[in-house]
Every structure is written in C-alpha cells, then in structure tokens.
Specification:
Layout lengths: L1 E7 L2 E6 L9 E10 L2 H9 L1 E2 L2 E2 L4 E2 L4 E8 L11 E4 L2 E2 L5 H4 L10 E2 L16 E5 L3 E3 L6 H4 L2 H14 L6 E5 L3 H12 L4 E6 L2 H9 L4 E4 L12 E6 L4 H10 E9 L13 H5 L3 E4 L6 H11 L7 E6 L3 H9 L6 E5 L8
This protein binds zinc ion (ZN) (2 copies).
Length: about 350
C-alpha cells in the first residue's frame, strides 16, 4: 500500500509501506482522504514545525477519513465498513492538564503525524492505518467523506472560537485567510458573530474567505483598503505571522479578546505588547482541540458551504505536487490526498 513519508527537509516520498495489523484496543482504517495541513507543509519545507524537528522518517498526516476494516483484540466501535473520521489526539489522561479538562494541551499527548515526541507518532497518510478504536467517529447522516476530511481543521477553528468567548452579535476580525482562517470565519458565523472581517495578502485567499461567509475582506498590505474596520470586538490571528498579531492588538477594542491561533515562528515575535496592558486586552492562545471534533462533524453535515473550501483532490502517488499545490495559496485552499487504490474506482 502507498503512504506519504517525510524523510527530511524537502524529501517527501509516496512509497510502499507494509499493511499494519491492529493490536489490542486498535482499529484498522482504510483511509480515503487526507487533508494536507500547514504543519505537514512545514515538515516538508523546513524539516520541522514550531519547536518540533524531524529526527527520523515519518508518515505525515492527521486529517484523515475512511472506512473501518477490522479491530484488534478487545476493540470495538462502528461496524466494519462504516465511514469514519479519525480524532488524531491520544491525550495521556493523567497529567495536570488532562486532570484540568484541558486535554488539548496534554503534556504527554500522542498526535498523528507529529514529531513532538521521539520516536515520532506516525501519521495517517497511508492507504491503511492503525489507530486507537476509541478515536473513530462515525460520520453523521448526510456527511460524505470528502467534506468530512475538514473535520480536523474545523475542530481547530471551533476551539479558537470557543477560546474567543461569546461572539453573538460581535464584530470579529480574522487575520490570515488560509484554510484555517477560512474555517474560523465559518465557525465564527456559526457561533453567531454579527460581522466578520477577514484579511490576507492574497486576493485568491480573500475569495475563499468570502465563500466561507466573511462579510468584509481586506488586503492586509493595503492601509487604504476601505474595508478596514476602525475597531473590532474580538480578533482571531490565523496567519501565524507576528504582523497579524500586531494588527489584531491595534484593532481590538479596549478590554477585547485576541486569540492567537496561527503558529508563530519559534523564538521571539515582535508585536505591540504595550497595548495588552494599556487597553487591558486578553491575549489567549488556541492549540488543537478536544471535544470540538464531534461538533465539527455535525456542523459539516449541516453546511454545504464547506465544499467550496476543498480546492483539489490529488492521488497519493502525486503527493509532492499535492504539497506544492497546497503551499501555493494563490492556487488552493484545502488540498486532499486521495488514497483509494486505482482498482477501486467505480
Ligand atoms: Zn491540520
Ligand atoms: Zn495528559
């Protein structure tokens, strides 16, 4: 079977891997689609993401959906053949964060396709993967696998929106209109935001933000753009660039909330920290998610608008061109790898 393996910076290979066998408590899933995430692109282009560096070859991917093939000893879950999405996180359950109910920041979590620990946790970009059976979620009625592949990034967006607090009737600024920023736009609207303004450097990205429900879109590099709000209630930074955080701090009202969701470069970041003090701004981080995964599946089932954010579906054997496409935001929003073997096409 084919899998998508990162061997080091710039060395991505679609290669033959052995079919794994599910052990106790585990399920074997035939993967249909895997969404290419910003973190996958970071491993490919930079050999790491944030403070996590590649130290051995790793199957990438944590945004996977497919069908149940079999279970290992003592494992149970949706019946074999059921379409499922895979929750990518296995929190430890015993650390102080898990005890506090903040499993998304568990200090000892296992996350599919992540080099945060060593040996790395192998990911889901393979035709068949073994995962803990309890991480399978059957798709709600009416949700097809293609749209369901957005469940993981939408969960990230829903968690950021939760961190932002009550958005009903609020004006929300979202800086960065990549796939995550666009999903934050949709999640904020679903949470009752009164007006959502999205910014990005690229007109193509702003078109996706509009499709996701943004009321106003603004060119981030154009101070004279008529769309700039004078003030917003809440801001979500989704570009991972310090300039975006700076914009959020300057535009949020006094006492407002700024959520940093985009992964900033490791080390120090320049931004107007004095405003956090003088305007008593609440600056909050948002990292991954936990229970939002189930909420994401329900929202995806209810909202066809999400189909517009899947910009391409590419066979796994062309993984490198899929990654190049995903990295070029002037040509793509969310790119999916397709793991279905050619013989299976109807
Ligand atoms: Zn992701
Ligand atoms: Zn834990």
């Amino acid at each position: 079977m084919l899998g998508c393996v990162i061997h080091g910076q710039g060395d991505l290979r679609a290669e033959e891997l052995p079919v794994p066998t599910p052990g106790p408590g585990q399920a074997l899933v035939a993967v249909r689609y895997g969404g290419v995430c910003g973190s996958d692109l970071h491993y490919w282009r930079h050999g790491g993401v944030g403070d996590f560096r590649l130290r051995e070859p790793m199957v990438l991917g944590h945004e996977v959906v497919g069908t149940v093939v079999s279970y290992g000893d003592g494992a149970s879950g949706p019946v074999v053949g059921t379409a499922v999405a895979v929750h990518p996180a296995t929190p430890c359950g015993v650390c102080p964060e898990c005890a506090d109910g903040r499993r998304n920041v568990c200090r000892d979590t296992r996350y599919l396709g992540s080099a945060a620990r060593f040996p790395h946790v192998q990911g889901g970009f393979a035709a068949q993967v073994v995962v803990p059976a309890e991480q399978l979620r059957p798709l709600p009625t009416g949700l097809e696998l293609r749209r369901a592949a957005l469940a993981e990034p939408l969960s990230v967006a829903l968690h950021a929106v939760r961190r932002a607090g009550d958005l009903r009737g609020r004006h929300v600024l979202v800086t960065g209109a990549g796939p995550i920023g666009c999903l934050v736009v949709a999640a904020a609207k679903a949470a009752g935001a009164g007006h959502v303004t999205a910014t990005d450097l690229l007109p193509e990205a702003l078109r996706y933000a509009s499709a996701a429900g943004a009321d106003t879109v603004v060119r981030a590099d154009d101070p004279s753009d008529a769309g700039w709000p004078s003030e917003v209630d809440t801001a979500v930074e989704a570009s991972g660039v310090a300039a975006g955080l700076d914009t959020c701090l300057r535009l949020v009202r006094r006492g407002g909330v700024v959520v940093q969701l985009g992964m900033l470069p490791s080390g120090q970041s320049p931004f107007a920290g004095n405003l956090v003090v003088s305007r008593e701004i609440e600056l909050r981080g948002a990292f991954r998610f936990d229970g939002e995964f189930d909420e994401a599946l329900e929202l995806l089932a209810a909202e066809p608008v999400f189909d517009g954010l899947v910009s391409a579906v590419v066979p796994v054997r062309e993984a490198e061109s899929a990654f190049a496409l995903a990295a070029d935001r002037s040509r793509s929003c969310k790119v999916l790898l397709d793991f279905e073997s050619p013989g299976h096409h109807a």
